[in-house]
Structures are given as structure tokens and as C-alpha cells.
Protein 1
Amino acid sequence: MKVLNLEVKNIRGIKHIKIGSQGQNLVVFGPNGTGKSAIVDAIDFLLTGKISKLTGEGTKLLGLKKHGCHIDSRDDLKNTIVIAKVEVEGKEVLIERSINRPSSFKVKPKKYKALVDSYLEVATLGQHILSRREILKYITAEAGKRAKEIQSLLNLMDVENLRATFVTVKNEAKAEFKNAESNFGVTKSEVSNLLSLASFSEKACLDKINELREILNGSKIKELSPEKIKDSLEPHPFGAGPEALTTTQIENTLGETKSLMQQKDELIEKELELKTLLEAVRKEAKLKQYSLYKKLFEAGISLVDASNVCPLCGRKWEEGDFRVYLKEKIKETAAGKEKQDEIDETSSFIKGKVDLLKNDVTNLVRAHEQFDLKVIDEEELKSYLSLLESWSQAMVKPMEFFESGKWPTSSLEEIFGASFRKIKMVAPLESTLKKAGEQFSKQQVAWDTLTKMEEKWKRYQKTQEGKNVSKAFEKRAEASLEYFEKAKDSVLEDIYDAVKDNFNEYYQTIHPEDESSFASKISPKKAQLIFEVDFYGRGMFPPHALHSEGHQDSMGLCLFFALNKYLTKDAIKTIVLDDVIMSIDRTHRRAVCHLLKKNFPDKQFIITTHDTAWAKQLKAEGIVTQKNMIHFLNWNIDTGPIFELDKDLWDRIKEDLDKNDVPSAAHKLRRDAECFFESACDLLCAKLRYKGHHQWELGDFAPAAISAYTGYLKKAKSNFQKMKQENKFKELSKLEKKSNEIIGRSQIEQWIINENVHYNRWEEFTKKDFDPVVGAFKALFDLFTCSSCGATIAMSESKGATPKAMVSCSCGKIFWNIE
Amino acid sequence: MVQKSVSDLIFDKFAKSIKKDSLFGGISDDLVALARRKRPSKSEIEKLLRGKQDEGSESGS
């Protein structure tokens, strides 16, 4: 899609403007504040229904309807319109969009609506306008922010949100499994305490159940299930009752509690060990990302061959075998994984013990109640249970608690020592149990135990299932995230590879001399996008770290072109460059022109600039023709931009002369001749007489350019003769003769122009006087301009060990060897 | 002009991996459909990945 012509009514600073480009490049130039950017905004609005500078960071208070229209049209939004005739797949189509209804647009003929829709969908990516703001987005942004910008361009915000959700789900699944595992451990301990098992196993439980059934004259059961525990047994009177704890349970719980207290030293060690591990991981960010690094180095090993070339940056590894280096790196990542596993293992161990103690304390409190022992300090108990709970929770996500400063206030030494003793629950209970002795018969105890076992076994089965479900959930959550990240990274790496290759090529085109071995690296890393560039073979650095502003501007331009190529797939052929290469010098601007011509011959560039020299250079380099140069002269609120469509100079002069307006014609000729010869001096590296006040004029530029021209022509003619290229020699001899005649004519009459302009004696001249001057200058201009490509000839040097000087045009029709 | 979006390419690769893994037997289609949906909630994903509704369990006598 290319813009053939554009009509803008009441948009931003524009009241009404019509511009025709016929799908060719267009340059809008003029001082700041003359409304150039309003043209950019109008094109942006036409293609996307938005004005990008009114969206994004720092634009909360800005809105399209309030600030997108001309200030005087806020109450008349129906008349805020952009209409463009565009070319789509060889068809001419009219598109019209109004700020009144920005999300919809009219298409004429209507039958092309679907076609235009599909193109404008690509345009919504916004990848058709580059301004200084966008350059900063790509070049100087932090990795996280840049990733967001690029993700937004690639429409990946939903993908990133889903990735973040998978990360949350994975973390929750891990925490859930830790809780389920601990619950299962506590249930097993409950069963062990009830049945007085030395160590828990399902077989030991079954054997113990059968022992108890035997006491009650029951047959043995082969499988353990809540329904079978008391199957076929005669009902028996309860001893302590179904709700009360059995003496054995209390004794075993006391035994387990004491055993836990005896494990204090081990727990102190585990706490220290855990804190050391957490501190190490906190200090070394890489340890947290071991899995990602591991994958990277493993992929590296599979890709590196004997050439020792890095598959990422494409440079040769000079320090020994690259594969050995990668293997060492994998070992380092293994250390990271080891640390994470140790953290999981240690925290699970502590959690298991803490939860067990918490459950035991709860049961012992019930035993105290059962014996009506009123010795426990309620406040101490509450505070102790709260400490246990804080440890239990912290061990689910230890790193999170450690980093956020929510680590438990009491150490495990206190919890398994002094703090526990403060509750004073063990001794009174032991003494009471001793005094009570055996209260119930063997049969009553057996019946009580089997009755409780029914409930315990149900809980055992449930917590076991919970643990299994949590484990499967954790595995699926981990795998989902891994698959999703792999898919995302793989697709993005392919894209970034394509973008990177184009980026490097474009950048080298702009900087062929100093950056011929330039390389860059664009890589997704979790939620970040790392963008680094080579700095003269000294390593990879962020693009804004060491490169000059001019180089950064070039990089921004090249990255934009590379992204544009990938994203728009050549659908939108119009590219708007809004005052973007201001930090690039004239020589590299010429290289930019070369890039535009060489790499984007089918694109339509709409270039705005406040720099007249750049505008003229674009014309001289053959990027834009005279008729597509629009000069914005001024702006006022009532009329909008005051501009002139640059007609062909000779046509404009003819118009003046037809009206017998010699002064205007002479003024135009002088002004344009001055610009033309200034540019010619630059392109031909002409020698100019130095002036301290830096104010050169036509009288300085024209002779210098002509001198350079004649010198080169003479040299080229001589070279053709030496090389025995007779035809070329004859051609240049003829041109030399012709040029001498033209130069002679123009020099004789130059005084007329000078005098006319300087002394304003225009009334003394007639059309008849001025016609020959115009003819001479037109012929003079033509000498410096290629009749095929319209570009001004330029002096340059070829590449290679022995560079050769030449004079040529853009298309190569003119090519003089001046070595 | 019809071209797959970058998101589609990512979801296609994701679906391929999920469908190959027996860990996702019985839920792979639902998971892929959920992932492709705009902004699926965390609870929907959790429910699907859990496979069964976990009612949770507390220990005690």
C-alpha cells in the first residue's frame, strides 16, 4: 500500500492541506513549528485510527478527540478528516477516516473494503512511522522495557501475560505439593502414634490392625480399608470413647514430641544450612536462572563444531576449545540446580518437623483438656502455635520469605527448646498418665483404637491422594511453563535472528568503513529482551553504552527497518521518517540515502525534517524529486501550515517570466542556484575559499563546483584515453566542449543575477534580458545532474586496499574514473 | 495477506509439545484451547492442570 495523495482537514495543526505524491517519496521540510509533524500524525491516524504520540507513557491526560483535532474543531469533529488515495495491489482506492469515529473508515469503491481492512490490520502494528521517540524505545530502553515495546509490536502482551500466569501457577503448585506432602507425613505420624508403630508402613498397619482384631476375636483381613477395619467384629463398649485420645496415643505423642526436641541440634544445623543457601542464591542471580542457562549452554554444545565459532554472536572463540568452555558452564549451572534442590529438600525437612510438632502440640493440648489439667498458659500456647505456623508457612516459599524480610522472628533453637518448655505441657501429662494407670480392658482399648483407625485411615487415604494429585499438578505446571517458554523463545529467536541479520546488514551499509565487522545480539530472556552490539571487536555492549549519538541514531533507524520488514511483510510500503537522523553527519546521511535506494527501492518514504540541507541532500542523492519536496514556511493558528509545493525551478521561473515578473524569477534562480552549488560543492568535495564569518554565497559556490567539475572531467577524459576507451574519450571530449561553452555563457551573465538580487534594480530588466540567463543556468545545472536518475553527480572512493576515486551518479549512468 | 501471527506460531509449538507428553493425557486439548483464549484466568489453568478437584486435607485426631 502506497499513498498517492493526501487531503487533511482539521487535524492537529492543519486546517486544510492537499498533498500529491503519486506513490513517490516525499520530503516535507521547514523550520520547527510549521506543522510538519501534523502530516505524520495525519498519516498515522489514517492508517491506524490513532495518533501514536497521543498514546503511551506520559500521555494519560491526552486524548484523540480532544487533542487529535485542530484546536478550533473540537466541537466539530465531523470535519476532522483525513482522506487518501492509496494504491493497493494495483488498485486505486480512496480511504477516509474522521476523528469523530476513529475506529471505522470509509473505502471507495466499497468492494475493496475487505482488501483495505487486511492491509490496515498490519498497519495497526504502528511499524510505519519512526520518530526520535521510537529510536529511544529500541536503543536506550532497559531490557525489560524494550521487551515490552517489542512484545507490544509483535502483539505479544497476551503471550507474556499467559507466561506470567504459568509462572504463578507453577509456584503455587510447588507450594501446594509441599503442604500436601507435609500433611501426608503428619497423617502417617498420627497412624503410627495410634498403633504404636516403630516405623510406618502399610503392612505394619495391617499387621497391627489384625492383632487388635484378634483381641476382639475377629478374623484377619487381607486389605486395609476403613470399611474392613471393624468388618464382622461384634460391637464392643468403648473405653475412652471415640472422641477421646487413647492412653497409647497420648504416650506415643509425648514420645514423638520428646524425640522432636532431641532433634534440636539437627534442626539448628538445617536452619543455618538453609540460610546460607538462600544467601548464596540471593547474591548470585545466575543461580536462580540455572535452568535457562543450562538449556542455553546445552544448545551451544550441540551447535558448536570444530570451527569454534559461537552460534550466538558468530565470532570465533579464541581461548581454546569452545566446547570445553561450554561444558564448564554447564557444570556451573548444575551447581545452581543443586543449590535449588538443597533449598527445597532442607525447607521440606524443616516444614515436616515443624508441622509434626504443631500437630503433636495440638493433640497434647487435647489430652490436657481430657484430663482437665489447667496448667497451660493460654497466651504462651497461642504465641507458640503462631511461631510454628510462621515457620510452616515460610518453609513453603523460603526464598520469597527470605528476600521480603518475612523470615520467622524466632529461631528453631528456641522453638525446639526454650519456647516449648515455657508451655509446660509434658511433665503434668506424664505424671497424670502415671497416676491414672490402666483404666480400660484390652478389648476396650482395641475397640477404641480400631474405631479411631477407621477415621485415621480415611484421612491417610485422602492425604495420600492429595499428595499424588499435588505432585501431578506440580509436574504439569512445571512442564506447561517449560513448554510454553520453549515455544515462545524458539519462535522469537527465529524472528530475532531474521531481524538481527537485516539489522546488521543495514547498519553496515550506513557505516561501511568503521563498522564492517559489526555484529549484534538480540535475545529474549524470560521477560526481557537483551539487545547488545559489538563495539569494534572489543565485546558486546548495550547500544547506548559506548556508541556515539549518531551511531545510535543509525542503529535505531536500522532496527526500525529490520522490524518493519519482518512485521509488515512489505504490505505497507509507506514509511514515515519523522525528523530522525539529526545526529548523523552529512557523509553518513549519504550512506543512509544509499541504504534507502539499495534496500528499499519499492518503499515510499515520507521524510520530514527541519534541516534544509538534509532535504536538499535527499534531492541531490536522487531520493526525492523536486516536485515532491514541500517547503513548510510558517504556521499560524487560523490557516495552519503556510507552505509551497516545490515546482520544478524552471517551470516556476517560466511562470514568473510569463507574467513579466523578472525580479521574482531572478530571486528564485539565485536562491536555488546557491543551494544547488552548495550541494554540488559538498558532493564533489570542491575547494572553497575559506571565510571567517562562514557566509558563502553563489559567487563562492558556483566557481568552486565548476572548477571541481572541469578538473574531474579533464582527468576522467585523460584516463579513458590512457585506457584506450575511445568511445568514452570521445564522449567526454564532446561533453568538455559543451560544458566549456555552457560555463562560459553562465559566467558572462552571472553579474546580472547578482546585481539584480543585491541591488534590487529589477525594474531595469525585461523578460528578454533574463531569458538567456535562465537558459544558461539550466544548461549548467544539467551538467551536474544525471538525465536518468535525476541525482547530482558525486565524488567518492571505491573500497579495497587501493581505493580509487570516481565521479558518478546514483544509477551509474555517469561513471568517471578520476584516479 | 493472511499470515499467522507470532502468538499463533507460539501456541502451535506449545500445543505440539503438550500433545506429545502423556503427562497431559486427557487435558491437552482443553489446555491448548484455554491457552489460546484471550487472558485465561489462573484458577481455570490450575483447575485443569490439577486434573481432579483437590479438596485439601487437614490432619488431626
Note: The longest strand of chain A covers residues 2-11.
Protein 2
Amino acid sequence: MRILMMGAAAAVLAACGGGDEQADAGADIDITAGQPAADGAVALEPGDDFQARLQTMLIEAEKGSTITLPEGTFMMTDGLSLDVDGVTITGAGQGATILDFSGQRGSGEGLLITSDDVTLENFSIQETKGDGIKSKGADRIIYSDLTVEWLGDPDPENGAYGVYPVESTDVLVERVTVRGASDAGIYVGQSNNIIVRDSVAEKNVAGIEIENSTHAEVYGNVVTQNTGGVLVFDLPDLPVMGGNSTRIYNNDIYSNNTPNFAPPGNIVAGVPAGTGVIIMANDKVVVENNRFEDNQTVQVLITAYTEPFTDEDYNPLPRNVVVKGNTYGTGGNNPDGRLAEIAPLLGGSLPPIVWDGVTRWGENEDIDNNIVIDEGEGVGFINIGFGTYPMDLANVSPSMERPGGEAFGELEPVTLSHSE
Amino acid sequence: MRRALLAALTGLLVACGKPVAGPDMDVILADKPARTLAEYGFFQDVSAREPARGVVAYDLINPLFSDHASKHRLVFVPVGEAAAYNGDDVFDFPVGSVLIKTFAFAPDMRQPKEGERYRETRLLIRKADGWAAYPYVWNEDETEATYAPAGDWLDVAFVDPAGEPVSIEYRVPNQNQCKTCHQMGDDIAPIGPKARNLNHEGPYGKMQLADWSARGILSGLPDAPPAVPSVAGMNASVEGRARAYLDINCAHCHRAEGSASNSGLWLGYDEAEPTKLGIGKHPTAAGRGSGDAVFVVAPGEADNSILTYRMASTEAGIAMPELGRALIDEDGLELVRDWISGMDAY
């Protein structure tokens, strides 16, 4: 009782002195080192309580401000998050500012962005327990000059996605490096208006994945040592479906032969090792002017969604797919996964471009998928001719004849409202 | 003694020109959070045991599991105003309303009142432009709770309700993490105070909704409001109780407007579509959280379901819910396992 009483008196006295005082700092956190400069920028100093000071800054950031991270490696104990519009987080450079999450105790990702007009640039994130950087409902975001990586050998214990924008409009990912993700390195999901360019995706299960999204351009990227290079997927039972209008061009997609290390159950766990590009259940996809080399299952795979589903709004077939003007080195010489079961029928190896030939599902009629293979005569193609899923090897009628689809015209260039 | 103390305190308050008692609307509606919990005036004592006039205790039929913490919930609605009844969702509270929730532990949680210690108090304040969430952390002596936007990690040790000693690093969520669970589209919203969660006998020994109505803090109460089954009770089916459990523990994120909307896994009590409930549904972005299982809920196969795998983990990146627990809710897990086991296998 005495302690209570003294506390009470102290509290009352304090109330007299500063009862209307409003807090602008954390309980036990001195952020005097982070006072705003004239231009609204705040610089974070290294030292004790780094995580708490950074998180406090992220919470108390003003719209339009810049938070500058110092050079060095900083151990994080929990996920960070930003929910203020218009904030830029910038570091001393990839590999110079490193946020190390190997001791992370909570949260599903290293950094979570839930506000609009945010720019993330010039730092590295390592060893998150879940995803690396996730932005959800974060329109006009820029991921620029970042590294997100899991060190060491490919490991199913690594986080799922490296860079993970979802449910967003206007997404720019440029000059980003992602290594080691147990799902997709750069994953854009359920979004619209997307550019992924000049980035490096290596040693992930999927290098770059555009899923249930519309109007995307993927260009100028180096995609290597993943299980599969670039995936364009549409999946059922999600709030946003009907993925369409993606252009994959001028990428270097080679040696994606890492054995699949995704935890079973995830859709990418079915990606055969040695795959360059997979187009699954999407509409209007162009694969053009890329260099393919040494993807040992197949350079380009065009496929329907292979699993049973109940979603009545979902179309599992690829439609209006154009493959043209790419260059193909060696590949298809060591097929993996389901395609390894097909290869013996074709003499043991697969041509650069493979279509599963699925043209219907459920009780529906066959459709004309309109697959356009506009490549030099020497570029091999095969239509496996499954007709429908589940696949039945006894009913396969492979054909090397190109489908003779008609190009649907140019996709409109993706223009982002926030960036050139 | 206590009365004397209160009188003394009242004298001091009057002496320095502060309002005598009761919630201070200027502090409640200020742009920024107050530095200490005491400044809001929700309590008559510094240790927040005695609510001020107009601050009403309530509880929920089923609480969210938070590492076995006791939770003390209070609601304040500005004098002369009332929350408007809503049959399906959280009541429409007027500006200036506050939901106050204090998390506490006792040395032995089989007797949660004995030696109970307050650790943190979370406020949800209905500001003019929507709800705001502020965390406060108590000092050792429980004489002051201070605003802690970055949250905190607290060493907490106790004997759990099953009699097992546990020692955890208890996470006080930071302000953004508050929003993660309380997200409602672009806004934030309370989770608990829905008719179906409140419709039972409350801490004053009265039917809670009727009591709120009688106090004038709730308007539009119909004759027969809905109620969820008690998870702990034995009056409802396993399915009903499991669905009630998922509703209060998961559905604040796993719904169309929540933080987990992109998963397409929606666990609200009213969800009727099996696939949306996870039955026969493939994971979307689970990563290693899949635990090598193919379906979120594999009917008849509790050991092969992602839902139970994630409930049974305490590891970041796997554990669900992602925030708010360091321990496994063994009772909840068993209930959900029973629900899945009772389904006809494919």
C-alpha cells in the first residue's frame, strides 16, 4: 500500500507539472540522435537499442520524410514495419548497411510496408525467418538497390519470398539482388502495373514470379542458379485472379538447375529443376528477346494449372502466349520432375519450348489456347497433347507441330505513375 | 485507508486545477498519445485497479489466446452518447470512445488473481478520423504505465493453467503490430466488441448487452442478438466451438479486409465456403509454414494439415498467429485437431 500511495502522489504531482504533455518518444528510448534535419531527413545512429530506435522512427516518421540507416551490420530481434505514407528508407548501400535477422523472434517477415509511396533503397536484409521484405496494399512502392539474402546452401528452412509486394498498384523493383529464397526471390502477387528490371535473382527456388497479377514487365534481369527462372502463374481460390498481360524480355536466364528445395505443399515445390520460364494459367504473355542457356529440363514451359480445384471463377489454361526472338543455348538434356516421365517418349531430352497441350478442364469444351511460337525453324517445340488434367501418360499424343496461333498485337507498355 | 488515500488524491487534483475524476476528453482526442496511461483519467488509482465513473468492465465469450495472460477489458463511451448496435460486426462507437485492455500475469495462472501483476495496457481510441492503437507498459511497482510505441520484450515466468512452469519472452506489440491485427481495409478497427462475442453474462453478473443498453452506452439492441458458442464450454458441437475459436483467434487477419487477405484463407465464423475455410485449399505463401502438408485443412488428417502445424509451432516464420504469442495454445490446438479429425477424409 505504501508503494502505491507514494506512486500515486508522485503521479499526481507529475500531472500538475505536465499533465498535458504529449509523448513524442518511446518509453525508454532516447531518439535525440535522430532529430529531423532541415529537409525532414532523420539519420539513425548506430549503438544500443538500434532495433527499438529504428522501429520508433518508423512509427513516428512524418509523411515525406527520409530515414537514413548507418553503415554497419545490425542484429534485429523482431520484424520491422512502416505504415506511414511517402517515407524513404535509405542505407549506405547494398552490403554496407546490413539488417541481420538471424536472431529474429517474431513476425512473419523482416520488414513490412503497409503504406503508399514508399521507397526502399541501398541496404541489405539477411536471414529473415519468414519473408524478407513484404509490402501489402502499398501502392507506388519502389524497391531499389537492395539485397535480400539467405546465406549458405539452399535450405527449405529459408524464408519464402525475398521481395514480396502484394495487393498493390504500381510496383517498381530495380537493381535488387535476391538469393536463397525457399519460394520466389522476387515475387509480385495480386498486383497491377509492375516493373521488375535490372535485378539479380539467384539460388532461389523461383527466381522471379509474377502471380495473379496484371500488366507486368520483367526485363534486363539476370536469373540464374534457381530451380526455375521466371514464373508467370495464376492460381485459384485467391481474392485476385485472372493474371494477364505480362512481358518478359531482354533477360539472361541461364543454368537454373538447382534441385527444388521448396517445402512440399507450396505451388513452386512442383517446379522441375532446370526450368527457364514457366507460363501457367495466364492470359496474354509475351516471352521475347531473352537469352536461354543450360536450363536442363526446358527453356520455356507453357502449362495449365495441374491440380484439382473448385473455384468457379478460375481459368486454369494458358491463353494468348507468344514466344519469339529468344536465343537458346544448350538445355533440355536432363529433365526433372513430371517432364522426366515424358522425356523417354521423346528420346530422352526435351526441346527448348514445351506446351502441355491442355485445352480443356472439367466439363468444358476444348478451347483454342492461341499459342504463338515465332522462333527460327531450328528451335524445337513440342506439344505434349495431354488435353486435360489429371495427366494420363497412356493418352499422350505428342506433336512437334507448332500450334499456328496468331499474335494478339503488342501489349501496351507498362507505365508507372510514380517512376519512369 | 484506501478511502483516505482517494480523498487525499482528490484534494491534490482539485488543488492543481485538474478535473476531479473521469476520462479527460482533451487527452483522449489529442493528436498524439499521452505519455502515461494515468493522464487519460480512466482510473481512480495509479495502479489502474479502480475504473473511473463511466468506465465499464466487460469480457468476451471467447478471448484471443495471448500466452495465458489474464485480460481486463474496459470500455468508455463519452457521456450522453452510445455505440450503435451492429449484428455482424463491431459496434459503431462514437468519437471519443476508448477500449482499454490490460494484460496481467500471476505467479500461478491456476489462481490468476493471486499476486497478479499488470504488464501492459493497450488502448484503442476512436478519434475523429478513425481508431488509433497505443501500447503502454507498466513499471515494476505498477504505479505508472508509459507509452511504448516500439513495444517491448518482457521476461515473464509463471505456472501455466495445466500446472507446468513456463518462462517466456513476452512480446508487447509495437504500434504497427497493433494495426496488423486490427486492420480493416485501410483503417483499423476493434476485434472483440461484436454482439456475438459479448452476448453472455459479463463481469457484473448481468447479461452484458442488456447491461450496456441499460447504462446507455449501446443503442439499437434487438431482442435476440447472436452469440458464439463458448470454446471452453461443452454445450456446442466440436465444429461450432472450433469455428468460434478460429473466429476470435484468426479471423481478424484471415478475412477479406484483414492483414492476411491475400492468402484467400478466411476463417470468420460466418464463412460458409469450405475452400475459403482451408478445406482442400493449397497454401498461397506459406513457405516453410506448410510443414510439408499439401492442404491447409486435410479432412480427417489433423497431422497433415497446415493449420494445425502452424498452431503447434512457436517459431517465427511458421507460427500462427504471427504476432501475440510465444506459447502454444494446447487446448485450442486440440479442439481444432478434433474438428479436422472428425471430417470425412478424401
Note: Confidence is low (pLDDT under 50) at residues 1-34 of chain A.
Protein 3
Amino acid sequence: MAPHPAAMSKIEIRDLWLSFGKVAVLQGVNLSVAERRITALMGPSGSGKSTILRVLNRLIELIPEAVVKGDVYLDGRSIFSMDVVELRRRVQMIFQIPNPIPNLSIFENVALGLKLNKLVRNRSELYSRVKTALERAQLWEEVKDRLSSPAGKLSGGQQQRLCVARALAFEPEVLLADEPTANLDPENTARLEELFLDLKKDVTIILVTHFPGQAARISDYVAFLYKGRIVETGPTKEVFTNPKHELTEKYVTGKLY
Amino acid sequence: MNWRRVKNWLGIGAIVVLSLFAVAPVLSVVVSIYAAGAAAIASLGGLATFLTAEPPDPFATSGGVGPLLAGTLYMTALGAAAGILVGFPIGIYIGEFKRDKLSHVARGAVNMLVEFPTIAMGLFVYGMFSMVRGDVNSVLAPLSRDLSSVLGGWVTWFVGPLDFYNAYIGAAALAIVMIPYVALFTASAYASIDQPLREAAYSLSGREYKAVFTVLRKVVWRAVLASFLLGTAKIAGETAPLFFTALGNHYYAPFTGPTGAVTLWIYEAAQSSYKVQVDSAYGAAAVLLTVVLALFILAKLLGRGR
């Protein structure tokens, strides 16, 4: 299949419609996501932000009532024509609630995806990939002496960074983050935000956030959604300082929630 | 006196008393079986003899449950293996794929099977086997000859032409009893997994079957293993499914023919007019209770290890 003409963006969403039965959740969404930048999706609850993320890695297919129309391109190739295993290797996700596999150790949690997908050939390569992932997630120094401890014994912030490490073990090109700091205290929130700023050198990050302040702090681009539609997109500074749409202005000034 | 506090104490007291009423019969049964069973085992030659000797005839002074225990353990092991192999995937299907219409049908069928009279299951297995016995034996007879020429005569105790009553259809009937328990426990375990964890599993695995059978299984393995143990404990104590399948046997004999079971002996010997046989029934009940309690305790320890 020939790549889509707009192949400069990392991800291109074209006229995306999604409904659950008769309820339209996304209505004609068009969005370009720049490579190796942080793009924030912000908007009130129920605007479709998390749903967009689940389309990007096709987790939406777990919901049989979901009907998707339109297309999404990753490096110019439609994600719906791609093997889902390849897609989910390239596009990884972290979730609002840290979700390490509870019965597995810290090491096994990070190694799990590598082993399942046969991405390593031997034990020493596995160790190397796990160590690298934990280092990139800024967790290695805190856990290097207890890799065989249960992941459930880590603090909330550490568990979320472990989930980041688990995703990074795949060496993904895109990281989808669905309100990753919603359940963290301010200190851990700040640590995770710093981590994202560091990661964006290598990874394209799409961040769903409920907090306009977070989007303003760390994102390069922002898209404001309201009731399933993109209202406004653009460079973060521009959208926050000079919003073009009345709804956007209300949202960034805290008058719409 | 604070009337609200009095009402609270009365309520809690009533719950405690009623709980004791519920637990007391169980404790009473366990204590009485072990008391009578221990005395019976001692009078019939001691534990080692009891676990290996054949059941006593009416005029014997010693005896045991050796062939019956072998039959119970063999049929329970086979039945549990088959029950788990079939019940586990069914449980995953009805617990994890609730969106499929077929999974609703499967759940309905499993719910019905759980309530099905187990004696009818035995009758069903016997009837089905009778229809195919000839064909089955046409395969087993030469297979048994070939295997015994290579491995020795002992193979014929396990592999050979099957009589109308045999250990294998007994195990099949027990498996059918176990399947719905394993399926429902497994379904419940999978359904209790949080959605974020489920999404993480699919995100890591790519393929649905890997997410379900590998990642999510690691999350629920304790609950599922406990369900296997509880299901095994249940079928170890079953009697009715074996009436028309294993039939019963007082002697050590190939499993390809009528096979004894501890539960069948308890049913038979408890009605005997001879004290030695009634005593051996108590002893057999104590042995069976020990096996079942061991499985229950193991399941409980697994659950606590979470």
C-alpha cells in the first residue's frame, strides 16, 4: 500500500468517526501528531480524549459495539492494515492507574512483553533491554538491588515509572499516556513530567490530560476536544495565550470543565 | 443503658450464634468420622494395612481400602485432568469474551450442568460408551498388544479393551461433574480483573490469545489453581456418577474393567450387617475426608498467598 501523502507527521488522523451503538463519541476528528514532540489532548470529561488513544493502538477493537470510520496513519501507513502485533510494539501505552502485573517481580514486569513477543534471543540480551528500559524510566537506581521483589511493593509513583519502563522495553516510536499522573501526588507528578520531557528526544508522546496546566507545562502541541470534536489545535503557547475559539478560551481559563 | 449499644450487641450475638449453628454440624461430622474411623483403622490392622489391603469380607478380622483408594485416586486424577483441560478454556471464554453471544449460551449451559443430577451424568456416559465400545476396543486391543510387547504386561492394567464398566468412563463422568465448577470459578476470576490491567495485557501481548492465556493467567493463577483443587476435592467424594460407570470392585484389577472407589465402598459397607464391614466404612470415610480436607486446605493456603 502506498504511504499517505502527509507522511511528515508521525501520526495522521483523518476524518475519524467513532460510535458505540447509536452514541457518537468521536465526530470527524482530524489531527496531525508531530514526531518526537509531546502532543497533549485536553478537554472536559467525556470529550473523547482517551477514546482517541485507544483507537491509535486499536485497543478499541476490544469493544464490540465500537464502530470506527475514517483512518489513522502511522508513518504514512494505515494502522488498520497493519498487523496489530507490529502496531502495539511500535505504539505503547501507559494508563491512568499504574497497572504492573501484580504477581510478577519488577524485572519480570519489564521483561514480560519482550518475552511474549520474542524480541530477545537470550537471557543476557533480556537483562540488557530491561536495564536500559528502567534507566530510561529513571527507575534503575531505585530498584537495581531488588529486581526480584514483587512489583506491587513499589510506591504509586514508582509503579507508574515501572509501567513506563515496561512500555519503553519495546523501544516504541510512540508512547500514549492516558492521564498518567491523575493518581499521583505532586512530587511524583513532577518526576513523571520531567521524564516525559526527557523521553521526547526519542519518542513521540501523546498525552491525555485533565489538567490544562499540565498541558501548558510540558506539551509542544495541544488539541482541545469538546463533545467528540477537535475544537482547536496548535502550538501550546499559541493556544494558551491566544486561543482562537471561545470554548478553548473558556477551558484554558477554567470556566469550562 | 444505651439502647442502641444493646441492640448492636444483640445483633452481633445473634450472628455469632447462628454462625456456630452453621459450623457445628460440619465440625461434629468431622470429629465423629475421625473418631470412629481412627478406631476402625486401628482394629482392622493399622494404617499401613488399611491403606493397602482389600476390603474385609464379613468374617475377616482385618482389611482395608487398598484397591478402592487406588481406584479413587486414579479416576479422580484422570477426571480432574480432563475437567481442567475442558473447564478452564470454557471459563476463560465465558469470563473474558462476554461480548460474544455464544458465550452467553455457554454460560447458560454451564449453569445448567452445575445443577444436573450427577447420577444422570453417569447414566449418560454409560449410554454413550455402550454405543462406541466396539469401535474404541478395536483401537485399544492392538494398541495394548503392541505396548505390552514393548513395555511389559503391566501395561494391560491401564491400556486394553474396555469392559462395559471401567475406570475410564468413571473418570469421564467425574470430569463432566468437574467441568462446570472449574469453568465458573475461572470465569469469575477473569471477570474480576480490572479493566486497566486487561488493557495493559492486550497492549503488551498484541494477540488476544496471548493476552488471555499468558498475561491475564498470571494475574489470576492463584484463584484458578484454587478452583482446580476445590473441583478435584468435589469429584473425589462423588458416588452417584460411578454407579453406572466404574460399578465397583473389591479387588486389585485392571482399570479396564470394573473399578472400586472409596465412596462406592462406603455406600455398600455402611449398609452391611457385619460390624467389620461397617467399621471399614468409617475407616474409608476418614481416609476420604483426609484427602478432601488436604485439598481444601491447600486451596485456602493458595488463596492466602495472594
Note: Confidence is low (pLDDT under 50) at residues 1-7 of chain A.
